[in-house]
Each structure stands twice: as C-alpha cells, then as structure tokens.
Amino acid sequence: MSDAKRRVVVTAALPYANGDIHIGHLVEYLQTDFWVRFQKMRGHECLYICADDTHGTPVMIRARSEGVSPRELIARSYEQHIKDFAEFQIRFDSYYSTDSEENRAFCNMIFAAMERSGAVSTRQLPQLYCEKDAMFLPDRFVRGGCPKCGAGGQYGDSCDTCGQTYSAEELKDAQCVMCGEAPVTRESEHLFFELEPFRDFLSAWIPKHTAPDVANKLLEWFSEPLRGWCISRDAPYFGFEIPGRPGKFFYVWVDAPIGYMASLKKWCGENGQQFDDWWTNPGAELYHFIGKDIVRFHCLFWPAMLHVAGVKTPDQVFVHGFLTVNGEKMSKSKGTFVKARTYLDHLNPQDLRFYYACKLNGTTDDLDLNLGDFVSRVNSDLVGKITNLASRGAQMLHKRLGGKMGAMDAEGRALWLAACGRAEAVAEHYEARDFSKVMVEVRNLADTANQYFDTQAPWALVKTDPEAARQVMTSVLNIFRVLAIYLQPILPVYAERVAALFREDPYQWADLQKTVEDTALAPYAYLATRVEMAAIEKMIEAGRNERMFS
C-alpha cells in the first residue's frame, strides 16, 4: 500500500431533519468514521462531510403539528443530531444544513446547466388539490386507503402495511390531512430531468464507480428507455424555489446530495481553503457512503446532474446493507427500533462501535445486531481478551513493581514484532472497509498475548524474580499498545486512554514502530466494562414506549 499523501473527501448520507438518529443510521455513520479516522492516522488529508437534510413535506407537516416554523424545527433537530453523533464519538469535519445559501447557489448553478443542456422538460401531471385549503397536496398531505391492499390511513406515496408504492391519485377515499376534506384532481405542470440523454455516460460510469452487485442491479434499468425524474414540487413546500418558476420548488432529493458540496464549501470558507482544490481537483479523491435504499438517487440522478454541470463525480459510491436486530427488521412494537439517545441512556457507545466493527465487511450484506451476541462479544473479546492485557499487566505493575516498565524479554519482543508485522494486513482491511477482518486480527493477537501472559505467570514470578516479571508485563503491555493503535479508528476514546496510560500523545499509524520501555506508567484507568443483559432489557423497554418520527 502506497504511503503517498492523499487528499480525500468522504461523505455520509444526510440524515433527515424530521427524524431522530437511530441505531440503524449508525451503521453508516460509524463505518464512515472508522474509515476516515484510519486515513487521518495514516497521515492523509481526509475530510468527513455531512449535513442535515432539511427540506420537504414531512418537515412542513411536523412543524405545523407542533406550532413552530420549519426553520425552528430543523434548528432543534440539528442540535440533537450533533449531540447524538458527538456522544457516539463520530467526528465530522463539517456538519451543515441543506437549508443554506451555499446549497441554494449550487442548486441554481446545477439547474441552470441542466436547462442549458436541454435535459429539462415540462409535463402536465394529475395531482390532488384541496379546494378548501386552495393548494395542491404533496404526497404526505393526503391520506386514504391503499389501492393495493386496502389498508386505511396511508400516505399518498406508499403503504406502510404492504410496502407498495403508488401515486396519490390512486388512494381510496382520499382526505386532506389538514382539513379532512376530499380533494379533487387537477393538472399541474412539473419539471423533469431527462435521463435518457445520459444513457451512454451512466452505463459506462456505473460499473467503474460502484461494486459489481450494485452495478448489475442498476444496469437492469437500462433494458428500456430511462425515465425522466420529476424534480419539482408545488407550493407550499419547504425548500428552494426554482429560479424562473414561481410557485415551483426543487424536490428535496435534488438539493440533498448537493448539500455535500455546500457542506464542503462551508468548511473551505472557515479554513482558508478553495473548494476547487478539494471537490474538483483531479488529484483529490471523493467517496460517498450510502445505504442500498438510496442507490438510485446517488448512482443515476446524482452523477448525471454533476456530469451535465461539468462537476467531478464521486470516485466510488460505497453501499452498505440495512440493520436487523435479532435477525428481524427493527420494530417499534418490539422495542428494537432504538433511538441513538435511548441507547446512550443505557449503554456505552464504544461497545456499539466495537460490535459493528466486528460485523461490517464492506459489502451490501445486512448487518444483524444480535443482542445476546452483542453482550458476549463485548464481554468476551473487548473486556476479557483485549482489555484484560492492560488491566492485569498495568495493575500488577503498579501494585508490585512501582508502576515502572522495564525492557521486554526475548520471547515478548518476538511477539511484539509479530504483532507489528500485521500492520500492513490490518491497514489493507481498513482500506477495503472490511472492519470485521481488522477485529479478527486484533483478537488473534490478543489470544497469543494472553497465552504468553498465562504461561509466564508473572503473578507468581514476581515473588521469586521481580525483574523477570517486569519484563513479562512490559512485553504484554507493549503488545497491548499495538492492539490499541490498530483499534484507534474504531475505539478512539479507548485509544486516547491507552495513550494516556503510556504518557503518550494520541497515536498515529507510525507509532507502531516505537516501543515503550524503561518508563513509568500513569495510574491505570478502566478502559472497558462488561455489558449487563439487564441494561439491554431496560433499553428495549424504553424503546417500546418512545415516540418516533419518520
């Protein structure tokens, strides 16, 4: 792997301002954080960019229901999201909002290019209209019976019961959500971004910038002419009005990905940097981390928008699967649809970081949070195998030998060299986003170190040969330090505490080449504690009683 310094921009999909961050979202934000932290440890210039996705009908509806303005609502949501992410040790370089002037400017620029290219068309569409409220009704402003399964109380775009999608005009016994009156159908003119002119570009772009399974799925769309994408919504709508189209607003999925650019632009302005040196620089790298539910937006519409505007497209779009809990879809009734805040009220965030890393492999496979396995993995591996090396070694050294390390013995030094010798393999796993293999490497090294510790039995050796015991504990602690460096992108606070134990600065990857010998340890502070099933049960019970927004 090359050590040449890289300039990298990394984005994670924007969480919607109308919703709480939950443990399903965290699959994405944590794996992105792991990858970015690793790049920074290697000495690369790497930025983690994100923002709140703020526009659209659901924000309007919730704001109205709470008697606040949409901007008051999104400001409150922003503060909660920032707090949740920070407590999960997720470190963004720029976390912004799509409701920004930077985003408006980029939207207008890209739309102007779309118009110049001739790829914007207009069509008359039938749409529900409320005569009492004198407005066209967006999908989420109308409810009725599902035209597929008949379930009542469904929104005008999809059915929560059977999962089918449809147009609002197909609803049975439709009602306006504001006044309860039955709407009528009227024609409304809408703007479309035609994708067919970009068929050749997209069919060549997709296989080069997505994984084979993702590309194969996307290319199924190319068996027939690509459909145009409706990019406008009627007033009232919380979003950006389309230039030259009074009463028409950009659909939220137009300005959401453009929000990546706006967030980077904000960071550049605050840090004396030029946007073109990062996003459009041919020598820089641009990566998107997204879930498989939004592939169509990121790998069809988005690259076409950037291409027509002459803006660099992402180097790769990394797609991950969904989170299941105990092998099933997250469920509010079962209490497994857990908000980030609920988790934080009951459990340690580093434990979820650890467990997700054990399961993530860089593919689109779904990740299962098996709660029994979660308890077992944390208690057995993080506490019982990895942290055990430090807790036994450091505490014994303080208790029996004044807390001072000596030199490693020959066997211990060989084990330390072997641990350091896995650095390139570990780095390759990080680069490939195969965090589960990182954890296998660390666990195997921890097993070997524990076997050495148990065989040498320094608790007995210290009684007859204190200096030999000091050498054993010094060896074990140096091996543990290597493991902590390997784990730092996944467990940053844990690694900070390890660095403090050895009286060192926060680790860089190059610190693997050093040893810590003939020096005094700082007092030992606990690095990890066991998870109790009772805390899991309390979290699930709290989840059952929570109000969730979506």
Structural features, described:
The longest helix is centred in the C-terminal third of the chain and has 31 residues, at 371-401. This protein has a five-stranded parallel sheet, with helices on both faces. Strands 5-4-9-10 form a four-stranded antiparallel sheet. The protein has a three-stranded antiparallel sheet with strand order 7-6-8, with no helix packed on it. The two termini are 42 Å apart. The protein has helices at 23-41, 57-66, 70-87, 101-116, 199-209, 212-218, 252-270, 295-308, 340-346, 349-359, 371-401, 410-420, 423-431, 435-456, 458-464, 466-487, 492-501, 533-544; strands spanning 7-12, 45-52, 94-97, 120-130, 135-136, 142-145, 154-155, 172-176, 184-193, 229-230, 232-234, 248-250, 285-291, 316-320, 323-325, 328-329, 367-369. The chain contains 18 helices and 17 strands. The radius of gyration is 27 Å and the shape is elongated. By secondary structure, it is an alpha/beta fold. Helix 11 (371-401) packs antiparallel against helix 16 (466-487). Strand 4 (120-130) and strand 5 (135-136) form a beta hairpin. The model has no long low-confidence stretch (mean pLDDT 95).
Summarize this entry quickly.
The protein contains 18 helices and 17 strands. It is an alpha/beta fold.
